[in-house]
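Hi Prof. W.,

I finally got the Membrane protein YesL prediction working! I wasn't sure whether to trim anything, so I left the full sequence exactly as given:
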Amino acid sequence: MSAGQARETGEIFGPRMTLFADVLSVGVCTALVSLPVVTLPAALSTACAVLRGAREDQPVTAGRYLAVLRQRLRAGDLAAGALSAAGLLLLLADLALARAGLPGAPLFAAVAALIGTYATVVGLRACARPESLNDWRAAVREAARDSVRDVGGSGLVLLAVAAAALCAWMLLPLAFLAPGPLALALTAIDVRLSSGVSRTESA
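And this is what came out:
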């Protein structure tokens, strides 16, 4: 947000409150677009792209979200969603087998949970990458690197997911708002890393 957007005297809601409201509206759009499941990566990636545009004073509105989304939902986006859904089902099946009492079940469950956690972090960080708008392979590749070189950011991703899940668990209607703050957190984590890398290279 530019300095010229500071709240004027007598104005009740400043630009930060307006942005918060816009984040919630983007969250509702993301939740609705994600309902078919296979559209979830594209929906979350679009939300991150729209929120990233706030740094350049671009509007963060449901209208802009839908405009960006219309340029997407290509075969690659749907394939990314199908792959994500298949990975989740595979993880759930592995955990169910572990609970069935197979030999070495505790170790198997721990390894499966660890792999699932890492895949979740990489997938979410990929959604926040600018490359995800047109090249999911590049986005996943860069996200995998980010998850290793920025362990703190990966921890923040897990905290953001936990906060969103907790809100949805406490009050079900919040599940339709949670994707907005989640996308904002993912975007902030990616911008934080990018800014840190830029300062390191310029030093």
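The two ends are 26 Å apart (CA to CA). Does that look reasonable to you?

Thanks,
D.
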